[in-house]
Structure formats: C-alpha cells, structure tokens
Design a protein that fits this description.
The protein is α+β, with helices and mostly antiparallel strands. It contains seven helices and seven strands, in the order αααβαααββββββα. A hairpin with a 2-residue loop joins strand 4 and strand 5. The chain is globular, with a radius of gyration of 15 Å.
C-alpha cells in the first residue's frame, strides 16, 4: 500500500520508534546530498495501538534508531509526550546522525550539552498530527522554530532533509522518517564549538 508520495506504508516500523521521546523538532537541516532510502522491516498491522514512545522502544531493541533513542535518553525527554497530546515527528535515521561531522553526536550526548540537544530534538516535533496528505507546502512551526516543506509528487523535503518513510501512525501522533538532522542556523553555528 502506497501513500500519495509513493512511500510504502507497511515499511519502517523502527522509524516510528524515533517519535517516542521526541518532544522537540529541529528547524533546518544540514545541506547534504540525499541518501538512499533505507531498507526496513514491515510495520505491525495495528501500529495505532502503540504510542510513539513504545514504537521507539521497539525499534531501538531491534537495532533501529539507536542513535535517536540514545539522544532522547541523554536529553531527558523520553517521557515528554503525554497521552492525548498529538504530535508529528520528523525522525532522523541512524544514517542521518552518522552524516554529522565526526564526534558531534558524542559531544551532544554529554551532560553539559543536554539543553542544546533538547533544543535540537524540539526542532523535529510539530504540535498536532499531520499525515503526508495534510503536510503543507511552505512553512510549518515546530516546538523549536520554523521549518520549510517542499512537497512534490513522490518527494517531501523538510529544509534540506528528505522524507524516506511517511505516515508511521501511532496512538498519539505520526512519524515521518528523514535522512538528515534538522538544525536551526543558530544551533548549526554552535556545533563547531562543542566540547
């Protein structure tokens, strides 16, 4: 089954896992060439019975979105999503984290950088549930600032990140997996001076 952008809707359960603790969303992505769509296992038949947090835990246990799960834990935002609070999460894959400059992830998960990491995660979260059919072309407000969406048939670009899997539905929101980390300009400038 495919959605209007041509994404296979029964793939990439691990992506849903990312949404679990993300209460934060990033604003702009690192400008890099798009990476190929990752392979994934079929999603459970009824993912709406799981919260985004439960999906993230399952994906992390299966070896998917391990970096995102570690970042959520290090930032202390794992329990930030409350029942009844609908969110849309643009969830970076492990490959997206690996594309950051060498040593960046290790520095971000240090206790001294916890607040900065939480701001980055907030930049990836949009209040309310927006499926691929509801995503607007243009600007969208996240918990960490504004992002830009460029939607054409078969493609969704969020800042400079490509949606590699859309519409991973959970009981309290939806996850769209992306191939780049979204970073607001002011945070991008801070990454070079992390210790």
């Amino acid at each position: 089954m495919f959605d209007r952008f041509g994404f296979h809707l029964r793939k990439f359960v691990p992506l849903m896992a990312i949404a679990a603790g993300l209460t934060f969303v990033s604003h702009s992505a690192i400008a890099q060439s798009p990476s190929p769509t990752p392979k994934a296992n079929p999603a459970p038949v009824n993912t709406r019975s799981l919260t985004v947090t439960q999906l993230l835990q399952q994906a992390s246990s299966a070896g998917q979105f391990t970096t995102l799960a570690a970042a959520i834990k290090a930032a202390g935002v794992g329990n930030a999503l409350q029942k009844g609070q609908k969110v849309t999460i643009f969830a970076p894959t492990d490959a997206a984290f690996a594309a950051l400059p060498a040593g960046t992830v290790e520095k971000l998960v240090k206790p001294a950088n916890r607040a900065l990491l939480a701001r980055i995660l907030a930049y990836h979260v949009v209040p309310g549930e927006l499926t691929s059919k509801q995503l607007p072309n243009g600007n969208l407000k996240t918990l960490g600032g504004g992002i830009s969406l460029d939607i054409t048939p078969g493609r969704v670009i969020v800042n400079d990140a490509k949606v590699v899997q859309a519409d991973l539905l959970a009981s309290n929101g939806v996850i769209h997996a992306i191939d780049r980390i979204l970073l607001p300009r002011e945070i991008r400038q801070q990454l070079g001076s992390l210790k």
